[in-house]
Amino acid sequence: MIPLSAYERSLQEFLKPIASLLADASVSEIMINHANEIYAERKGQLTRCSACFPSNEALTRALRNIAQYLGRSFDDEHPILEGHLPDGSRIEALLPPIAAAGPAVAIRRFSRNKLTLPRLIEVGALSFEAARFLGRAVADKKNIIIAGGTGSGKTSLLNALSGLIAPTERVIVLEDARELQLQGEHVLQLGVRPKDSAGRGEVTMRDLFKATLRLRPDRIVIGEIRGGESLDLIQAMTSGHGGCLSTVHASHPCDALARLETMALMSDVRLPLHALRSQIASAIDLVVQITRHGDGRRGITHICKVEPCTEGGDYKLHVLFELGQSGALTAAAAQQGNLAL
Questions:
Q1: Of residues 24, 60, 18, the one with CA closest to residue 39
Q2: What angle do CA 37, 292, 46 make, to 5 degrees?
Q3: d(CA 267, CA 203)
Q4: Residue 160 burial by CB count (10 A; 0-12/13-18/19+): exposed, middle or buried?
Q5: How far apart are CA 141 and CA 123, in angstroms?
Q6: Rounded to an integer, what distance in angstroms lies between the CA atom of residue 75 and that of residue 188?
Q7: How far apart are CA 42 and CA 25, in angstroms?
Q8: Which of 52, 101, 110, 216 has the fewest CB neighbours in a 10 Å radius?
């Protein structure tokens, strides 16, 4: 067992009121609205917990201790804290008066059990035929974007697809913070670095991406596209870097392409809109939409092939699989028996 550092022991003490939740493997998220109101998510369902902190002041002290561990400032001048706890859980916290009732916290926890496509089939998130199709797409080095909302399972699906990458391939992973647990044998994980207290030393996702292209990647995986790195990824895909995988926040496959377009426009490179859309359509092979349903279940609702843009410059998607009224993900009627990549 790795001995705990002084900071980690201190964190355990400060977070003692929610220690049982942090130790519960079935808890996927802990939400603290203020010292006396704490919720936990299990299997997609929220329940209020009996746990509580002695006071908002005690909760604030715990959060400032976490900030110290992370090397961040968390005070009136810097009222938003984001980072990761020693166990890898992601934390986001806000101080009053931004959070009116008291310090607000969300702790997203990540399963240590590696998710696989057979497991996704078992829980009903994916059909066997769709899993086989995605397996073939990964093997053929198609560029795949996984789209979905917060908590829909994008990262879990990306982890599962990574298990299909050949062990002989060198995979380079770029993340804002380490959340992916890629299952390949030759994986190099890189992470951004924020500015220090003097505003120096920042390493952005775009900086990492430029370095990655010189590190001889067979595959490039970006945990989540959030900004101008969208254009870098698109241009890499269209210049011979196949088999790229990433996720994006979007509620529909069409929205995913529009989001990529918007984020590409955030870069310092100015392209005519028709040229940018043409590049996006050429770069992305498949968009996989995953959704969190009202009952907490998560599952794939669409697998779409991206076709060349229309003459009018609009995106064109060919639905290969979609979730039907029966609740099953099946091949679209026009593609039955002929799922061409």
A1: 18
A2: 20
A3: 16
A4: buried
A5: 26
A6: 35
A7: 9
A8: 216
What is the Cα–Cα distance from 280 to 241, expressed in whole angstroms? 14
- The tokens describing 235, both together, are 């241009």
Tell me the Ramachandran region of residue 199: left when phi exceeds 0, alpha when psi lies from -120 to 50, beta otherwise.
left
CB 146 within 8 A of CB 245: yes
Give how far Cα 278 sits from Cα of 233, 272, 329, Å. Answer: 14, 10, 29
For 279, the token pair is 């590049």
Q: What is the separation of C-alpha 122 from the centre of its chain, rounded to a whole number of angstroms?
A: 22
The CA distance from 69 to 81, in Å, is 12
* Cα-only R_g, the chain: 21
The single-letter code of the amino acid at 265 is L
- Contacts from 184-193 at CB under 8 Å and sequence distance 24+? 188/215
Tell the burial category of 182 from Cβ atoms under 10 Å away from its Cβ (0-12, 13-18, 19+). buried
Residuewise pLDDT in 10s, the chain (341 residues): 445 565 566 667 778 899 899 888 889 899 999 999 999 998 878 999 999 999 999 999 999 988 888 878 899 988 999 888 877 788 999 999 999 999 999 998 876 666 788 888 888 888 899 999 999 999 999 999 999 988 888 988 998 898 899 989 999 999 887 777 776 778 998 988 877 767 788 888 889 888 998 999 999 999 899 988 899 899 899 888 899 999 999 999 999 999 999 999 988 878 889 999 999 999 999 999 999 887 777 889 999 999 999 988 999 999 999 987 556 677 774 454 455 66
Question: Which residue type sits at 222?
Answer: I
Task: Measure the CA angle with vertex 243, ends 28 and 218; round to 5°.
Answer: 105
Amino acid letter, residue 130: A
The secondary structure of 89-107, three-state, reads CEEEEECCCCCCCCCEEEE
Q: For residues 85 and 81, what is the distance between their CA atoms, to the nearest angstrom?
A: 12
Task: State CA 136 to chain mean position distance.
Answer: 23
Q: Among positive and negative, which fits the CA dihedral 53, 57, 61, 64?
A: positive
> Angle at Cα 335 formed by Cα 330 and Cα 339, nearest 5°?
90
